[in-house]
UniProtKB/TrEMBL annotation:
Keywords: Membrane, Transmembrane, Transmembrane helix
Native species: Owenweeksia hongkongensis (strain DSM 17368 / CIP 108786 / JCM 12287 / NRRL B-23963 / UST20020801)
InterPro entries: DUF4271
TM regions (residue ranges): 12-30, 62-86, 98-124, 136-158, 164-184, 196-217
Biological classification of the source: Bacteria, Pseudomonadati, Bacteroidota, Flavobacteriia, Flavobacteriales
Protein name, entry field: DUF4271 domain-containing protein
Pfam families: DUF4271 (PF14093)
Length: 222
């Protein structure tokens, strides 16, 4: 008799998992020492150097690009799973179109936020400082992707463990974003500018967009 897989096991999640794993493996093989350091980024002795050197753009090397691409895929998957809580039974995870919409929403969110940050930096002649601070966000987004990936895989293929792992995913995601904001704020605080400018920047371009994003996602998929 042909074995029927549980409803939450879908082909698109398998291919996505293999693709992300390939990107992480490529980064690991390309620069194993740096990859190991990145896995403990918030607690590494050379944290500041790792943060500042990370830039996931074409021309920066396979390591940065691979981690940058995989982080978006993993963050999208993490949000997708969070929007599918456990209600007395395993949720059906077959809406691959919803996942693609989430990727587009996250992409637009980060592109808009970074563009506005650079625009503000250009107005006040602080573009280099803002770009350096944004590299910190890129680095912690990549680190968060590495940490979240095994949790997401365990949720998808872990059966009844989904309910417990769901809360673990929330904790890791919130904790990772906290590290990102914390160390980004440290870089912003070093800029030679009035205190209220820094506070306004953080409120207008970090806290408010995040609140808007969470509210938007809740309204879309409630």
């Amino acid at each position: 008799m042909e074995q029927v897989l549980p409803l939450h096991h879908t082909d698109w999640l398998l291919w996505l998992s293999l693709g992300v794993f390939s990107l992480l493996l490529a980064a690991r093989l390309y620069n194993p020492i740096r990859f190991k350091a990145f896995c403990i980024l918030p607690f590494h002795a050379n944290r500041s150097e790792l943060e500042g050197s990370f830039r996931p753009v074409v021309g920066r090397g396979l390591f940065d690009v691979s981690l940058g691409l995989s982080s978006f895929a993993i963050l999208g998957l993490a949000v997708f799973l969070i929007l599918h809580p456990y209600h007395h039974e395993l949720p059906v995870l077959g809406e691959w179109r919803m996942y693609l919409r989430l990727i587009m929403i996250l992409l637009l969110f980060f592109v808009f936020k970074n563009f506005m940050g650079l625009l503000v930096g250009w107005v006040f002649n602080k573009t280099d400082f803002i770009a350096s601070a944004q590299n910190v966000s890129f680095a912690y987004r990549a680190w968060l992707g590495v940490v979240l990936f095994p949790v997401c895989i365990a949720m998808v293929y872990g059966g009844e463990a989904y309910q417990v792992l769901y809360y673990l995913l929330l904790i890791v995601l919130c904790g990772g974003y906290y590290f990102s904001v914390q160390f980004f704020t440290i870089r912003i605080w070093r800029i030679d500018a009035f205190l209220y400018y820094k506070i306004f920047y953080l409120c207008a371009l970090e806290i408010t967009p995040l609140i808007f994003l969470v509210s938007w996602l809740q309204s879309l998929y409630r």
